[in-house]
Amino acid sequence: MINLYDLNRKKIAVLDNAFEIDETKEINSVYSFEFSMPSTDLKNDLCQKYYYVRYDEGELYRITSITKSSSNGQQIIRYFCEHVIATLIDDVIFGLETFGNLGFYTSDAINYILSKQSTMRWVLGTCDFNRQFEYTLENENLLAGLFSIANRFDVPYMWSYDTNVFPWKVSLKAIDTTEKPLFYIRAGKNILEPSETEETAEICTKLYCLGYGDGINQLTIKSVNNGIPYLLAEQEYIDRYGLISRIFTDKRFTDAQSLKERGQALLNELKTPRMTREFDVVDLYELTKADYDKAEVGRITLLTDDNTKTYITKITKRLDEAGDLKIELSTKTADIASSIADLADRQRINEVYSQGATQIYAQSVQANATTEKGAILSFFIPAEMKIVNAVKAKITLNRFRSYSQATAGGGENIVSSSDGGSSVVASNSGGSSTITSSAGGSSIATSEAAGDATITSTSINQQSMTTESGGGKTATTGTSLGGGDAIQTEFSQGSVTIRANSLTGGTQLASGPGSHYHNLTLPQFNTTYASGSHAHSLSLSRFAHSHTVLIESHNHWLTIPGHNHTVNIPSHSHSVSIPSHNHSVSIPSHTHNVNIPNHTHGIVQGIFEFGSPTSADLYINGVKKATIPSSSSEIDITQYLLNEQGYVPRGSWINLEVKPNDLSYVIINLFVQGFIQSAGGGTY
Quick check: pTM over 0.85? Predict the structure, then answer.
C-alpha cells in the first residue's frame, strides 16, 4: 500500500485504492514512481503536489504532476512522482564557484555541495572513492553538481539512497565487476522474454578533449598529457574497430587534469560498443526470498546461458502485480555513454556557463631615470585571466629631459653703507670707597691637647743591617821621599788579616750600638819597589765585602705637653675703592660692503637634455632579469614572469623597472594578450 505524507513528512493517509503502481529505478539517475486513483476517492484531495509517498518500506518519492483521464468509462487520476533526491534541484549555486583539487577529496566535494542546501535534507552516507579533482560550477542546481562529482571516474559507480532515515543519506559506491554475482538470470527459470541491443554509433578510439574558452585559448589536456591534445584507446581496440576520432567538449571544465580524467572515463566506455540486454523476468524473490533472486540496481548479475557477467542498470516493476519485472543489463551506464550525444545538455552548458574571450590591453609610462632610480611600470594580471598568451614590452632610452632652467647673473661689488667714525661714551662713574665686610677682632682657640708620652714605634730584638762594597784600590803608605835607585822586592808567603776597630776619639768602643769590626784577609802577594822615591799601594779590586750592623731591641717615643693653638684676629674692615672713570667705545670711519657672486634669477622654459644612455638593466619585482643592449629594444618578458611552477602569477601587481647606464628619459610600452573569463569583479 501507498502511504501519503505532508511537507513536514507527517503521515496523513493510506492510499489503499491506488492501482497500476509502477516504479522505475535507473542507475545514476532520478528514480520515478507512478500510480493511479479512482477520481471518486476522497483522498485525492489530500494528494497535493510535492507531498511525499512511499510504497511499503521502499523509497520515498514526491508528487510532481497530476493527470486526469478516463478508462472503460471510469474517471481516473494518474500521479507522477520523482525520487526525493530531486529535492536537490530546488537549491542552486548562483554565480561561479571553483573547489577541489589537491588535498580535497571526493567526500569533501560531496559535502561541499550538500552544504549549499537551504534546508539540510541530505547528508553523505558512505563514499568508496578518494579522488582529488577540481570542480567548477556556475549557476547550477545542486543535483547536477552532485552527479558531476563522479562522472569523470574511469570505473563503474552508482549513487544509492536511504530515505528511511532523516536527514536522508546519499552514498557513492563503486561497482566491482570482479565480485561474485549476486543475481542470476537463468533460461527456463526466470526469463520470460529476452532482447539484446548493441549500439556501435558511439564507438571512439581517439578522443580530443576541450574545456572552457575558444580558439587558441580553449582549454586542452596538452599540459597534462605530454603535449598531446587527445587520448588513445589500447591498440587492441584500435585494431578491432579502427582509429575512430571524436571531440569531447565540456566548457564547465577549467582544470586540465580534471578534463583529462573525464575524457579518460568517456574513452574507457566508448572504446567498446554499448551492449544492452533487456529481460522480462519472473520476480522469484517474492516467492523464494532468496538473496540471489533479488533484483537491485547495480547488482552484479550472471547470465547462466552464456556465462556473461555484468550489472543491472535499470529495473521497471509493477508493484501491485506479483511476478512481472523488466531488467536492463548494460556494459556501461547511460549517463556516460550519452554524454557526447546529448546535444541539448551541451547547449544548456554553453548557455549557462560563462566562457570569456581573448583580451588584449596595453599600457605605457614615460619617466626620467638614473642608474640608481629606474623608470617603473606597474601592471596587473587578474585571476580571471585563465590563459596568458604573451607579455611584451618595447623599451626606448632617450636623453634625460629637463623642462626649465634658471637665468644667469654676472655679479658685482656693492657699497651698501658708510660711517665717519666717532668716540662714544657708553657709561660714567664718579668713583667711591665701599666697605664690603668688617670684623671686631678676637683670639680664637682652634685646638687643644692635654699632653702625654706616646710610643710611636718598636724595634724587634736583634735586627741586622748589612751593606756591601765592591772593593777598590787603597794606598797603605805615604810617598817615600828617598830617591835611591836600588829596587827591592818583598814576597808574602801567606795571608795577613787586618782587624780594624771602630774608633771614636781614638778610643775603641767596647760595646753599644754601632760597635763593630772590619776584617780584611789579604792573599799571598809580593811588593816590588825602587830604592828611590816611591810609594806602596794595595789593589783590593778583587775583594768585594759587606758591612753588618747589629741593632739591639729598642723603642722610640715622643712626649707632647698639654697646649692650645690660637689665632688672634684684630678688628678690621674690607673695602674696595673705585675711582671716577668713563667707559667709551671708539668707532673708526668705515664702510659696509656686500659681495654678490655669479648667480641665476628666474626660470627659462624649454627642453634641455642630459646624458647619453646606451643600455639598461631590466628588473621584475626588484629582481634583475635581463640587460637591454641598445637604446631601443622589443622584448618578450613572459619568461621573466614565470614562478617556480612555470606559471604567471595572477591577482597581484607586477613591477617592471628599467635602470639605464646613464641619465635617460625612458619610455616603456607594455602589451598583454590572454584569455579572460567573466567570473570576478563587479558590474560598475
Answer: no
